[in-house]
User: Which sequence fits this backbone?
C-alpha cells in the first residue's frame, strides 16, 4: 500500500498539538480516511506520552532549591572580591612597568612618576569602587538574610518533624543543616541543645 | 514587607526587571524565586547530573544579575534566561565531550533521591518503572544537541516555537525541522522497545 503523500511533519505537529485551528480541522478530516496518517499519529503520540512520563520523573526536590539564592549571592560577592583584587594587581603591574621605564630614563622623571602614581591612586580608588561597594555590601547582606531564613526554616521543620511526624532521622538531619548554616553564631548552641535532647530521648 | 511580597507575585517579569534596574534589589530575588525550579529542572534534563545542574543554575542567575542592568525588553525575560541556560548547557556538553570525566554510571541521576517514595508502593514495580524511565531518557540523550534542546524547550518548558527560536538563535522553520527530526528519531529508537513490551 503506498504511503500517504501528507508530510509526516503534519502528523507530528498534530500529535504535539502544534497545528493552528486552520490546519487542524482539514487534517482531522483527512485522518478519517487515511489509515497511514492515523497510524503515524498514534505512534507519535505514544512517543510523546512515554517521554513526557520519563521526564516528569526528574523532579528537583524542594530542599535542593533552598540554597540557590544564597549561593548566587555568594558567587556575586566572590566575583566582586576578585574584581577588586585583580584591579589592585593590575595597578601594581602597571606601576612596576612604569617604574622600569623610568629607570632607563633620567632621574628627573621620578617627579613625573610620583605625579603619575598620585593620578593612578586617584583612578583606583575614586569612581569605580564607589560603584562596586554598594553591590558587594548588598550581596553580603543578602547572604546573611538567606542564612537567617535557612536557620529559621530548618529549626521550624525540625520541630514539625519531631513533634508532628515523630521522625527522628529527619529531625536530626534538619538540626545538622541548621547548625551548618548557623556556623559562628549562637544558633549553633540552640541546635546542639536540641540534638542533645533528641539523643537523650526528651 | 508582606504586602510587597504579594505585589511582587502580581507583577510581570519585565516590570520586576525594570524595578531591579532602578535599584530595587528585592525584584531580583522574586525573579530567582520564580525561575529557579524551572531552570534547575531544564538543566537537570539537559546535563543529567544533579550537582552540575545545581552549579549551572547558580551560574545562570549570576550571569543574569551581572547583565540585567543593560537588559532591554526585546524578548521575554524568561526566554532570555533560558538562552543563558542553553548556552551554559552547550558549553558544559562541549567541555565534557572534550574531557570525559565521568563514566556513564556516574551520570545517572540518583533517582531514589529525586522521586518521592510511597510506603505502600510495590518496590519491584518501582524499580521497573525507574528502569523504563532510564531507557527512555537515554533515548532522548541520543538526539543531537540541537534536537534535544528544541525538544526540551518546546515540550517541557512550555516555550512557544517562536520563543524556542529566539532562545536558540534559530529561524522558526529550523526549530520545526529539528523538532520533527527529534520525534522521528525517538520513534525509531523506542518503537521496537514498546512493541516488544520492554518499556
Assistant:
Amino acid at each position: 500500500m503506498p504511503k500517504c503523500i501528507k508530510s509526516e511533519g503534519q502528523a507530528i505537529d498534530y500529535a504535539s498539538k502544534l497545528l493552528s485551528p486552520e490546519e487542524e480541522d482539514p487534517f482531522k478530516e483527512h485522518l478519517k480516511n487515511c489509515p497511514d496518517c492515523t497510524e503515524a499519529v498514534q505512534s507519535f503520540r505514544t512517543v510523546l506520552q512515554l517521554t513526557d512520563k520519563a521526564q516528569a520523573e526528574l523532579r528537583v526536590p524542594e530542599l535542593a532549591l533552598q540554597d540557590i539564592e544564597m549561593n548566587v549571592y555568594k558567587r556575586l560577592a566572590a566575583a566582586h572580591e576578585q574584581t577588586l583584587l585583580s584591579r589592585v594587581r593590575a595597578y601594581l603591574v602597571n606601576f612596576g612597568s612604569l617604574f622600569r621605564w623610568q629607570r632607563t630614563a633620567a632621574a628627573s622623571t621620578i617627579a613625573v612618576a610620583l605625579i603619575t602614581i598620585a593620578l593612578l591612586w586617584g583612578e583606583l580608588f575614586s569612581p569605580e569602587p564607589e560603584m562596586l561597594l554598594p553591590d558587594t555590601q548588598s550581596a553580603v547582606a543578602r547572604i546573611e538574610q538567606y542564612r537567617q531564613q535557612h536557620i529559621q526554616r530548618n529549626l521550624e521543620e525540625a520541630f514539625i518533624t519531631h513533634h508532628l511526624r515523630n521522625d527522628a532521622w529527619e529531625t536530626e538531619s534538619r538540626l545538622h543543616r541548621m547548625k551548618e548554616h548557623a556556623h559562628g553564631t549562637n544558633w549553633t548552641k540552640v541546635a546542639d541543645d536540641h540534638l542533645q535532647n533528641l539523643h537523650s530521648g526528651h | 514587607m508582606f504586602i510587597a511580597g504579594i505585589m511582587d507575585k502580581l507583577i510581570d517579569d519585565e516590570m520586576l526587571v525594570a524595578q531591579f534596574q532602578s535599584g530595587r534589589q528585592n525584584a531580583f530575588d522574586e525573579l530567582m524565586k520564580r525561575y529557579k525550579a524551572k531552570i534547575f529542572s531544564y538543566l537537570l534534563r539537559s546535563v543529567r547530573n544533579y550537582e552540575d545542574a545545581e552549579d549551572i543554575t547558580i551560574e545562570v542567575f549570576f550571569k543574569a544579575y551581572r547583565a540585567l542592568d543593560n537588559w532591554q525588553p526585546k524578548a521575554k525575560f524568561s526566554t532570555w534566561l533560558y538562552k543563558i541556560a542553553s548556552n551554559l548547557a552547550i558549553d558544559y556538553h562541549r567541555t565534557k565531550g572534550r574531557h570525559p570525566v565521568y563514566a556513564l554510571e556516574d551520570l545517572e541521576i540518583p533517582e531514589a533521591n529525586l522521586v518521592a517514595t510511597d510506603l505502600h508502593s510495590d518496590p519491584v514495580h518501582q524499580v521497573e518503572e525507574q528502569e523504563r524511565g532510564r531507557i527512555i531518557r537515554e533515548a532522548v540523550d541520543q538526539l543531537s544537541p540541537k534536537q534535544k534542546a528544541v525538544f526540551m524547550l518546546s515540550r517541557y518548558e512550555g516555550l512557544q516555537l517562536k520563543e524556542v527560536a529566539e532562545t536558540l538563535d534559530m529561524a522558526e522553520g529550523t526549530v520545526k525541522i529539528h523538532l520533527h527530526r527529534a520525534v522521528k528519531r525517538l520513534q525509531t529508537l523506542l518503537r521496537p522497545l514498546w512493541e516488544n513490551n520492554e518499556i
User: Anything to note?
Assistant: Confidence is low (pLDDT under 50) at residues 128-134 of chain A. Chain A touches chain B at residues 8-9, 12-13, 15-16, 18, 43-44, 46-48, 50-55, 57-61, 64-65, 68-69, 71-72, 75-76, 79, 138, 142 (CB under 8 Å).
